[in-house]
Amino acid sequence: MAKTLYNEPSPLETMILSKRFRLENSHTLDSYLANGGFKAFLKAKEMTPEQIVDEVKASALRGRGGAGFPTGMKWSFVPRSSPKPKYIVVNADESEPGTCKDRLLMEYDPFQMIEGILIAGLAMDSHKGYIYIRGEYRYLIEHVDRALAEAYKRGYLGKNIAGTGFEFDLYTHSGAGAYECGEETALLDSLEGKRGIPRMKPPFPAVAGVWACPTLLNNVETFSAVPEIILNGGKAFADLGTPKNGGTRLLCISGHVNKPGVYEVPLGYPMMKAINEIAGGIPNGKKLKAVVPGGSSCPILKADECDIAMDYDTLAKVGSMLGSGGMVVMDETTDMVKVALRIMRFYAHESCGWCIPCREGTTWLKKILQRFDDGGGRKEDVPLLGELSKNMLGRTFCALGDAAAMPTISIVEKFAEDFEKRLAREMVAV
Amino acid sequence: MTFSPQLEERFQKMLAAYPEGRKRSAVVPMLIYAQDETGAVTPELIDEVARRCQVTPLQVDEVVGYYSMLHRKPQGKYHVQVCTNISCLLVGGMELYEHACKKLGIGHKETTADGQFSLEEVECMGACSWAPAVEINYDFHHHITPEKLDQLIDGLRKKQ
Amino acid sequence: MAEQVKLTINGQQVEAEKGTLLIEVARANGVEIPAFCYYEGLSLQAACRMCLVEVEKTPKLQVGCTLPVADGMVVHTESETVKAARKGTLEFLLTNHPLDCPVCDKGGECELQDMVFRYGAGESRFTERKAHVPEQQWSPVVFFDAPRCILCYRCVRICNEGMGVGALGIGNRGVIAEIVPNKHDHLECDECGACIDICPVGALTSGSYRYQTRPWEMEHVGTICTHCADGCRTTLGVRDGHIMRGNNRDRSGINGEFLCIKGRYGFDFVDHPDRLRSPMMKKGGTFEPISWTEAFSVIAQKFNEVKARSGKFGVIGSNHTTNEENFFLQKFARQGLGTKNIDHHRTGDLATLFDALSGRKDVLATAADLYTAKAVVVVGADLSQQHPLLANQIRANVRHHAAHVYAVTVGPVREDNQATVSVRVQKGGEVAGVESLRDKLKADGNLVIVFGDAVQGDALRKLIAFGDSLGIPVKYIGLVDYSNSRGAFDMGVLPRDGGMSREQMLAADLDVLWIVGANPLRTAVKSFVVVQDLFMTEAAKLADIVLPAASAYEKTGTVTNVCGEVQKLKQAIKVMGAKTDLEIMGSIAKEMGLNLGIWLPEKVQQEIRTTIHGYSVPLPILNSGGATPTQPLNGRVAALPGSITSAGDTLFTSGTLGRYSKTLSDVMEGPGELYSGR
């Protein structure tokens, strides 16, 4: 009997990662084992590390956290033969506005993620991992802790996992409210007990990550896809999507739609179909105005740009991103000045403060947009917003500066009329 | 400084989770769990965590101001966090927050005089598809309207 | 030889070692790439983004301070894109930076001012409200103005990496991120002021210099600090005959930019109200001011009278008068007064050290050697407290070259933080402690052993025998305290050939006790006591005649540091009423009718060069402000009577001089503690 999820599933979904979500007690080990659980791990145990990595490469799986880096390639960067201990770190910091999928994966199918981590452990010769979960997800930390305890009790973590002799220790680690800690190197500093300040790259985490040891860091959804890839082969996973953009992903549809929710679709799924058919279209007969395709860091798309396949490369070609899968739909009633302001307030608040352009730029932009929203907008502010954003773009220490600049540039350029409407009225002497 | 037996047990487990010589990793998790008991990150707590994690008090102090969820002043018994980021903004998050301000009679990061409620306008909490979202302490509440918020708050008030 | 690569910077072909940072290659070839957070010797930050440059075939601007050069790289540092990027970054920085230039100490020597003049953004498009918080005082020495701070993190790094203290951190996040002190609202640290000097803007300012003057109003005089024996150069800013500040930002001397609280701020004793301004003579039990003429006359008469009847003299010399003064004094004692009773407060067993190493070459280490040695053993000394420059050299060596440091001490010392091995010993067990490290030290390949007064006499001979037994090159530093203890020893302010030691003189029935720049007396003696000093010390109070002397900042001459390097003093100011010790001694000699040579520092120096073994150092180096090692090891040295004890000063005390420094007295960390691990 299907239980009530946060949202009703859609018949148009392709449920791979979410196939066990509706099962009663899907979060328990018994349920997982009864539904194909740990078969992939046992299969991977019989493969060589190179074969495992090759399979992930063949899957064309790309990082589901936001950057979309080819996962198999990332796995191949970790020097397995290093004498230092190798660590697996799971990015469960999920703080990108519009994104709420890793929550469901951890809540409804934690063992799928755990199995993915173990397979990565086999491939990396790693025996210790940490799941970095954002502090606000306290209930999930406790939930995953219970899953881990169950796994240890039943021999699926710790020594001699499933009788294979493989050893792995896995722990949760709580964040405490910082979006920047979703950036992989800032996450590592936070895991080490420091402020979440990003690091210079190179060296990359694969070579020198947590405690300067080789570290494999991937998103929750990325690890969750691994058991499927091993079990049914990388090619099968790849074929679900489009070339170089393999598999399915959890799409978080929010904003002005009738049926907001998290839905699993293959890579390359048409955006308008997702909005109109999966999410039930825009309520109250309103027209589409704009879509943020993958989290607030992505450049915004105008309505006439939304007839597009949703995969990493296609969206990149039009100057946006698939990102974290946080798709926010805006109808014609939306005031883009307020949207730009709220986005910049977010980045100004979350800027770690390390480098000058982001630290000062996000706050300056926020102040201009606030003044604009309060009714004090001047004509010269509009080009200034674009110029200041461009002074941040590509100049900052990490991608947060770009994440703040790119959407702002896109909103100011594509929705100039929203800004013109809000310009302060000038006093005219009669 | 000692904590409840459950918290002490959690700290033991935490310190054991990290490799030899890496106790510093436990600083942030210790602070966020301990402040639930101590009410806030006090100078005493900073010194205690520094001692247990073998770092200087300055190294602990540095992280307190960095992480939004660590607070040096006590919050209300029920800390009401209302998201106004874009997904929630689009479906009335800002109006919901303003309503919360009126309902509780306080503003951002303020606490009611009786110490029962505090309010915070927060960033995206990962409930975008079920917006507007409110988190009270660590409990998530979805699809919250002003009326539902009133019910939640009144219900908690009755609990005293 | 390391692999060389060829690259092009602004059209100019240059060559560099593969992997060198682009910013360094550019600088070496006359191309300035601006940077705030990049600083030689400190870890890389890449935070300020001022050093972004264009590198062909890469889409984004590249960070010049972290990019290693590669063969064929084509770099443009002055293209329109780069210039616009710099201007944009400066504009961002100036959004919250207050326009304090008219009242800010840094005005005129501010790196942000310089950058804005060079790269633009002086006129800002920012019309919003600036974030502002009030200024804070973190200690008597350190003031912090958060709005002015550009968050370059130099202060945090110099305190943590450079000084090994780590009293500054970073608090909050985003635009309200700020530097925070280790005690929430104040600092407890070395109060060295390194953070203040390294700050490119006026965010960190010093309590003693604030609002006093403008940098261009001062004349800067580079002289040698008059406190500990390390011999740091301190460049004193002088205006209208007053010392306004001290620092070493021009990196002259052996200490680079390093100075401790005494070197930077410990000059303020010079105008303490209690400075003696006139000779004083005891008449009827109380002191009355007298003229110099009368003073010299009375003293000369007395000395001649005692000499005529073969009476007994005792001369106690100083640890911080110049070599010339020390040389002249011992000549005065031996030739002028016919006495062998001359000594000074000996703080290290140099006699045994020189005797045991006699005739050898390259066995005495300099401060520079501490930076390059593969291993350093610190025995029986708390260097961070007593020899901060030496401690700094060792710290930098470990940081930059992964050298090994070992601490063999009775209590925790700051070297423990970096030490490969720390050995805690009981007093007397120091040499055994060093011996226990035999295998490790042998494997290190070369070694410097730094030892304090805990190792003297036979123990010192044992230590040297141990060093010999390792079969690797070993150099020694025998620690002494005060700015010219080594000089006092080398010049012969010593009870040789049966003379009385300091203790013996104080206990004996002398006719005359002449104390120059020392404070050994605590109880009245029957002798006729003449004291030359800056202040009415305990000894001066018990004297018959007190003569006001000048400090090291008020005269020229040379001093020799703990490592045996001799450097020249440069007179910064003159204090009315005081005379230099040399002038006083010369005047007394003249009054007595003695011919001891011309008492000008240059003349006495010439005599030293021809008389004292190892002191014929290259004059060009000495006269141009350099440091040059002396070579004192020349044959056996007879044992001397009397005890040897360290002064036991900390960072915040400095004999009697330290008592009169307002800064040293004001800081809460004083008087400090040895072997506390701080």
Could you characterize what this model shows?
With 430 residues, chain A is an alpha/beta fold. Chain A has 3 domains: 212 residues, NADH-ubiquinone oxidoreductase 51kDa subunit (Rossmann fold); 84 residues, Ubiquitin-like (UB roll), CATH 3.10.20.600; 94 residues, NADH-ubiquinone oxidoreductase 51kDa subunit, iron-sulphur binding domain (de novo design (two linked rop proteins), Up-down Bundle), CATH 1.20.1440. In chain A, 42% of the residues lie in helices and 13% in strands. In chain A, the strands form 3 sheets. Chain A has a 5-stranded mixed sheet with strand order 6-5-11-8-9, with helices on one face. The longest helix of chain A is centred in the C-terminal third of the chain and has 21 residues. Chain A starts with 28 loop residues before the first helix and ends in a 9-residue tail after the last helix. Chain B is α+β, with helices and mostly antiparallel strands and 160 residues long. Chain B has 2 domains: 60 residues, NADH-quinone oxidoreductase subunit E (Arc Repressor Mutant, subunit A), CATH 1.10.10; 82 residues, 3-Layer(aba) Sandwich (Glutaredoxin), CATH 3.40.30.10. Chain B has 7 helices and 5 strands. Chain B has a 5-stranded mixed sheet with strand order 2-3-1-4-5, covered by helices on one side. In chain B, strand 4 and strand 5 form a beta hairpin. The longest helix of chain B is centred in the N-terminal third of the chain and has 13 residues. The mean pLDDT of chain C is 96. The radius of gyration of chain C is 27 Å and the shape is globular. In chain C, the strands form 7 sheets. Chain C has a 7-stranded mixed sheet. In chain C, strands 2-1-5-3-4 form a 5-stranded mixed sheet, with helices on one face. In chain C, strand 1 and strand 2 form a beta hairpin. Chain C is an alpha/beta fold. Chains A and B meet through strand 3, strand 5, strand 11 and helix 13 of A and helix 2, helix 4 and helix 5 of B.
